[in-house]
What we know:
Elements: H1 18-26, H2 30-43, H3 48-76, H4 79-97, H5 102-130, H6 136-164, H7 167-192, H8 206-213, H9 216-234, H10 239-247, H11 251-279, H12 281-298, H13 305-333, H14 339-367, H15 370-392
Amino acid sequence: xxxxxxxxxxxxxxxxxxxxxxxxxxxxxxxxxxxxxxxRADDLGVDAVGIGFMYxxxxxxxxVFRPLVxxxxxxxxxxxxxxxxxxxxxxSMAVFAxxxxxxxxxxxxxxxxxxxxxxxxxxxxxxxxxxxxxERGGAMGRMAAASAQGSMVGATFGFTLLGFLPFAxxxxxxxxxxxxxxxxxxxxxxxxxxxxxxxxxQQTSSxxxxxxxxxxxxxxLFVIVFLSMFGSALIEPIYLLYxxxxxxxGVMLLAWVFLPAGVVFAILPRYAGNWSxxxxxxxxxxxxxxxxxxxxxxxxFWPSLWMIAVSYVLFSIGWAVASPAEDALVADLxxxxxxxxxIGAKEAAGGLGAATGPLLxxxxxxxxxxxxxxxxxxxxxxxxxxxxLLWFREQALR
Length: 398
């Protein structure tokens, strides 16, 4: 890779963990959305393809906005894009709270996708600014763990309401609470998160970023990101339906079954990120994705719900190991003045995989053997792990 262009002046921050706290607050609704949205849509009579479209709207919004946000971060700075993310989250949660039909869910998911694009691209770029090569993986892991911890706290709140109130009423109160937390995240980030790069549009030329995106390591990274997100998203909208229909269990029991997986994501990424700083990115990506692929392919063949719960914990361990290393690798490959652009482009590649995966998963689930979706997911992830090790095993920590 050519010598990176000289970075613009970095502005120190007096609260380097401010972005982590905001991400913690903004992540509160994630678990209830993942669990409740497919089941709520199923109650409304939406088929698996329609449920997949809800996920595609969310990821499609991120797909459109991530590269735009990334380029804007390099041109105008990071802070205000990060702060504005929580305004979109607050609006999304308010629509979820008042939702009465499928169109409301579509609107809420689109707003959530815009907020997610703003939050994750700017947060990861801020981390790339604040931490050097030997600390970046750990910082990415700490943020991922904070997001999972926020999701767990939000899930406790939401599922407690589900235990005492009718589903529709609990849904309204839960998402009203999440809207309040998003507003608090907005205020916190406005107060605590400082700018980490000087806006300097003259330093970022179209020739530079085009040359960067044309380089083989970057193109290969995008393939890895696309395949990993495509594979994981392929089963996202249908695995809860599969378990619900196969074992005839309710949402509360499913929540308890998958609680240990949430604990894994709340703890392991911060350690896995440090391991990637020590041992390199490719071994952690390949190991984690391979492990997740093997578990996914075997998941529908276990004879009991509790064995599947153990399998899903193992699946989560794989992703918790791989994700911080993947996030750190893209920052490692980016020149300082094009970090936002490359991180945004990488997020768009992941968004493309996440947008198309649910459609294929829903189609396989609806019109072919339901177990085949899990097997296809496993094969895709095994191929991804092989490519990550093949292409990036020489990627040394500089």
